[in-house]
Hints:
Chain A is an alpha/beta fold.
Amino acid sequence: MPPPVAHILVVEDDIDHTTLIMRALEEHGITDSIARVGDGEAAIDYLEQRNAYADPQSATRPHLVLLDLNLPKYSGLEVLRYIKTSSHLNTIPVVILTTSDAETDRLRAYDEHANAYVTKPVDFDRFSAMIRDLGQFWAVWNVTQRITP
Amino acid sequence: MHTSAEPQRVLSGRLRRGIDSLLLLVPMVIVVGSLAAIVYTTGTLAELRSNARMIDVAGQQRMLCEQHTKQVLLALNGIEADHATTRREFHRRSAVLREGGTIPRVWAEGDSVVLSPAPTRAVRDGVARAETLMIELESVADALTVAPPGAEKDAMVQRLLDLDARLLAATDDVVVKLESHTSQRIDRLVRSASAVGVLVVLLGVSLLWLLARLRRLNLGLEHEVDRRRSSEAELRSILASALDPIVTIDARGIIQSASDSVETVFGWTVDELQGRNVSMLMPEPHESRHDGYLAEYRRTGHAKMLGQTREMRARRHDGSTFPCELRINAVNADRREKPLFAGIIRDISQRLEREEHMRRLSRGIESAGEAFILADASGSIAYLNRAFVRLTGFDENEVVGRPFSRLPCLSATALEAIDAWRTKPDSTKYSQDVTSTRKDGSTFRAAITVAPEYDTNGGFDGFVAVLRDISDLTAAQELLETTARELEARNAEMEQFVYTVSHDLKSPLVTIRGFAGHLAKDVEAGNEKRIGEDIDAIRRATHRMSDLIDDLLELSRVGRVVGEPSCVDLREVVDRSLSSFADEAEQGNLVAEIGDLPCLLVDPTRIQQVFDNLVGNAMKYGADAGVVRLKIEATRVDDTISVRVADRGPGIDPAYHDKIFNLFARLSTGTDGTGIGLAICKRVVEHLNGRICVESEPGRGATFRLDLPASLADALEDDTAVAA
């Protein structure tokens, strides 16, 4: 019996970056179950299944969140804090995926209990490989507490 | 007690002295009396002896007379008696009496004449009468021997017998008188002897008393001598322990004595100094002049130095000199022939040094830039320096003597705080920055420090307050703080900028490289649909990158490049911003309502950017709602001109009001924009010392309010007035 397909939530304001991530995940066969939101407020709404995401069908609980830091409305760090301080969301692995390699960002992210911090490589091949490895580890190999909503 | 006992003591002293002299007189009187008694007794005894002899002689004389008369009568009767010798003796005695008849007191005794004074006139008269009778008897006896018998001879015999009887009676009378006299004298002798006895007893008593008195006097004197000795010893020990040397000299300046301290002060021992001229302790010119001063004193009896305290220099053994205070007093001025002078020399070098130190301190405090206020232990202001007068305008007369708690240049609150500090037992120092008021009412910032003062025993002795004008310092500090804040803000922006370079600028690069990679693959695979998508993504990314770079440059210019401010009519600025959307206005998609707008003295380029951004944002975010309705107006309240740019667009959640002015902050992903526009607006407004904020609620439009200082408009009015 094949393992259940992992569902990934990509929180990214840059639509083109989202496209790149989704293409990489699909091409490497990690998953095609990907949801995308463009700002921090939408991310929380999605996770809490409210407002625009009130219908549970449209907002499946993700097995992994790929979170950009620089987001409109609530920032990535604020979303991270929300998830990690929420009793029913804190088990979801959150990987920070950002272009920033500023140390302050890294430290703050880990302070808020990010599960991993990854800088987006500029090079296409490395970007593709990074998404593959990230997906492999977090969505396939890493055994998480899969809570079915 | 003391006052009443004193006269009593004086009185009893006088009484005792009176009694003493009286009692001294008593033995003298007794002695004189005794002597008189002895002399008297001796005289009386001589008298008694003389009386005894006279009685004896008188007895012999009577017997002789009786025998003579008997022999004469016997011879007459023809009987030659054997007692012719008696008759011869009688005869011889009467002859002697006759020869010396002029002296009736003389008694004849044998061949000699006894001179014995008769003790009384009666005795003398008796003797004289007896002698006269004796001579008369002798002459009758002689006449009888040759007289012829007869009646005449019988009468002569009768006469002889009569004379004999009278002579016997006279002799007896003399003896009786002498015996009576003797008896009197014996009585007197007994009396005088008793008197002498009493006197001797008295003399003994008084001598015993005198002896006791003398003994007591002696004890008193011994006690006095002891007392003087001990006080002399005390004086010596005082002299020995006196820190200031005391030197006594005679009228020729020769040192007679010196206290032990000369050794520590002068370096000479007492023995070395004694007998030498005191001028050796003085430097020139006093050394050579001193003998002259003394000679002048001996000549006139006047010395200017006596009883005066003078400051001069003295010389030590090693030749070095030191300042001293000299006081000379005459020790025994009453003895003019041999006066002594005592000089007390006080080494005042330390005192002078201290005084000089104090003067220096005082000058320092006087010329200090800080105001010094000294208060005594009771809190009363005792001293102010010049800086206080200069700083506050209050002069000494207005402040000195007043309680510190009413120091006029400090506020009541500050003074209460200082008062509270003073009452704390462990108070060490009080420091506070306060606003101080000058006499003319103007104020300045001052730092006040109050520190307690303690005397050598550690007792609270007042306090010193130092007031420092820190207006310049405060201004500098404020400037520093402002600059620091600005720098901090710039630094934060810089960090944000760097962050942007690493994130926002890298972001399109990731897009370009990623889609370029996909493009190559899609071209190879001939996937035309994806090729179009890839190229669009790359184009978007390059545009975005270009916009970002442009905006970042623009932002950096806002702070760096400052254009010359000029008179800018805001109405014209707004019109220019709206002109970019002339098409929308023409199509009725933009309705703008413009109120009264002022002219401001600002950089025209920058203010244009602000309104371009605000109008642009309203168009960008309000376009979805159809017609964009803009209302732009200005109001003035006090010193602030508020310009409002209001739209009726989707509005902004209050949660994001603070964020939207940050660099690269965006509230939506659906619109193009770099997130720099409002950051530029904020920076421009802040450069004009104003502030920008947003008032909005979701769905009810947004109003951006620019609060600008009215001085930007007033400066313009002033210029106009000047030009007019």
